[in-house]
Amino acid sequence: CMKEIILDIRDKAARGVFKNEEQVRVCIVYRVLQALGWDVWNPSEVYPEYLVVPTEDSSRIDVALFLRPTIPTVFIEVKAIGKLEQTLEASERQLRDYNRNNAATFTVLTDGIRWRLYYSKASGEFRQRLFKAIDLVRDEVEDAELSLRSFLTKNRLTEASVERQAEEYIESSLK
Questions:
Q1: Euclidean distance between CA atoms 34 and 46, whole angstroms
Q2: Contacts from 83-89 at CB under 8 Å and sequence distance 24+?
Q3: Tens digit of pLDDT for each residue in 143-155?
Q4: How far apart are the C-alpha atoms of 143 and 165, rounded to whole Å?
Q5: Contact between residue 148 and residue 115 where contact means Cβ atoms under 8 Å apart
């Protein structure tokens, strides 16, 4: 159950168990994705170190999620716990560039505790595409669970309503 996963992540984070980005990716991000219906052991669905634009450079996104072959649905960039704030501006620029030629519908920037969700298809600067910020430690467990389920559950991402909801969040934040 997602609630138990969030509580366990909180406990381990408080004890300083997660030491680096790779531990966050495998022990937090993959765990959350698996609970949301993604087959984390199938690289055609959950693709680690995805080469974003093979013809241009060797830029790789930490994780790409695929609902259909060859078209990424979600890009996830992972940082070590506590490294999100200090790299936020540079990370958002990097994610903007990743989405320039081979855009995923959604982009996630996370350190395992803080999850920043962007609607890549929105207009404006990349940082303005942020529609949801989730904090697994500070947010109510139920709120964090609902947000993750609403926007990252595999089966839900096939629904057009998810994109509309993201657009509505962006529009309401601009007002």
A1: 10
A2: 83/21, 83/111, 84/109, 84/110, 84/111, 84/114, 84/116
A3: 999 999 999 999 9
A4: 16
A5: yes
